[in-house]
Amino acid sequence: MNMFRVSRLVSMDKILVHGGRKLNGTVRISGSKNSALPILAAALLTRERCVIRGVPDLSDIHYMLTILSSLGCEVERASGTVIIKADKIRTEAPYELVRKMRASVCVLGPLLGREHEACVSLPGGCVIGDRPIDLHLRGFEALGAAVRVTGGNVKVLAPRLSGAKVNMGGKYGTTVLGTDNIMMAAVLAEGTTIIEDAAEEPEVVDLANFLNALGAKITGAGTCQITVEGVKELSGADYTVIPDRIEAGTMLVAGAITGGRVTVNHVRPDHLESVIEPLRAAGFTIETGERSITVSPNGGLRPLHLDTRPYPGFPTDMQAQMCALLVRAPGESVITDHIFPQRFMHVAELARMGAQIRLEAPTAFITGNGALSGAPVMASDLRASAALLLAGLQADGITEVNRVYHIDRGYEHIDDKLNDVGAHIERVKA
Ligand code: EPZ
Asked: How far apart are CA 407 and CA 99, in angstroms?
């Protein structure tokens, strides 16, 4: 990791977005952050060499690679390719690393699966709401692990792991990383595990495909029931992660919000059906190719009623971006986040730019009005920050987005990519 990238991880840089410019052109989408993170963790399951391609250059990826190194993995990175060899590993992930990223929790499953023990600090909450892992822990217990929460750490221990029936359903639906964790803990267990109410996200399918490339026997990924037949050991693999559907959706909203014509390529259109449909309903033409999607205006912007749902429903990770788009849709739009009811940090900041949004969590009522005006705003979490950048693209004047490190967690060089299609975004050293 060169110093430049590391400096991006912690910088208090800000970005200045000069609004009012139409975007036109093609954006190449990077590999999926939410696919790469659990796949990198899954490399802990085998002593053999894993080559993982299409890994985006993001601070969250850097954190995961640092955690894997601290667990004893040999980690090499050359541009988008990561090589991991987990020959001799430790089973305790350090607090100061884990606390920075909730997704660190997905090292629990592979450590338990391979070493039958693990100790990881409990993930902190974050601005999008409480982030419990009770469903993960319930799943580990079903496989025969003893779970203890002590001193801010979660410790799991299993003299032996036996296949079992595990249900991943909770108050807010299923759990993506919980499904991942149980899948990874089960691949080396004795017997067969049935995961019910499993998450169906494409990133869960990608993890299952990677695990099968290692020699696991997983069927049903992408449906609500996943079957894992335990095997004795795993090999290495050379694997490429899927494209990032949320980055693609974010870039399509960027094109839509400026009234331009933007194509995203190196994508999986089939992963974006629940984003394409609302964009069409909001008044945009969407054309899909085999590996590309193009957005362009199709008459006036129309208000929407949107509900976030587990895949294949409309993704919570696109909720803030759609809020930014709908602030100018005449009439009233209603967006409800059923997955993270508190995930509305972007609302107060959008209001500073002139948006009219009434928040009665988990629902935002958006009264479409004229224009937004540029203002200094504060990024808070990854997708809220992206929404503020999108709002700045359509605002009159300059929008200053502070704490841009939130954006760098999940978007690879987003300012460069947008400037390449006509935006005017400056990254300013704080
Ligand atoms: C994954 O987080 C994604 N992160 C999130 O993307 C995404 O928003 C989320 O799935 C939902 O799609 C990664 O893949 C790294 P959950 P995850 O467990 O797995 C509750 C982004 O912006 N819950 O599916 O941690 C939970 O509180 C990030 O890229 C429990 O109650 O989310 C939430 O309300 C943000 N108990 C709901 O379930 C549990 O044990 C869904 O959470 C686990 C979760």
From this structure: 18
Residue range 32-67, pLDDT digits in tens: 999 999 999 999 999 999 999 999 999 999 999 999
- The full set of domain ranges for the chain reads 6-29+301-428, 33-240
Q: 163-167: long-range contacts (C-beta < 8 A, 24 or more apart)?
A: 163/189, 163/190, 163/191, 163/192, 163/193, 163/228, 163/229, 163/230, 164/191, 164/193, 164/194, 165/193, 165/194, 165/196, 166/138, 166/139, 166/142, 166/193, 166/194, 166/195, 166/196, 167/195, 167/196, 167/197
- Would the CB of 31 count as within 6 Å of ligand 1? no
How far is the C-alpha of 420 from the C-alpha of 430, rounded, in Å? 23
Cα(398)–Cα(19) distance, rounded to whole angstroms? 6
CA-nearest of 142, 64, 383 to 247 is 383
* Burial readout 382-402 (b: 16 or more C-beta within 10 A, e: otherwise): bbbbbbbbbbbbbbeebbbbb
pLDDT of residue 124: 63
Give CA–CA dist 278/303, Å, rounded: 10
Q: Could you tell me the fold of the domain covering 33-240?
A: UDP-n-acetylglucosamine1-carboxyvinyl-transferase; Chain (3.65.10)
- pLDDT tens digit string along 86-109? 999 999 998 888 888 889 999 999
Task: Determine which residue's CA is closest to atom 5 belonging to ligand 1.
Answer: 317
Which CATH superfamily does the domain covering 6-29+301-428 fall into? Enolpyruvate transferase domain (3.65.10.10)
Q: Is 270 helix (H, G, I), strand (E, B) or coil?
A: helix
pTM beyond 0.90: the answer is yes
Ligand 1: does its nearest atom lie under 6 Å from the Cβ of 303? Answer: no
Question: Ligand 1, closest atom to CA 382?
Answer: 22
Active-site pick, 73, 106, 126, 323: 126
**Rg (the chain; Cα; Å):** 21
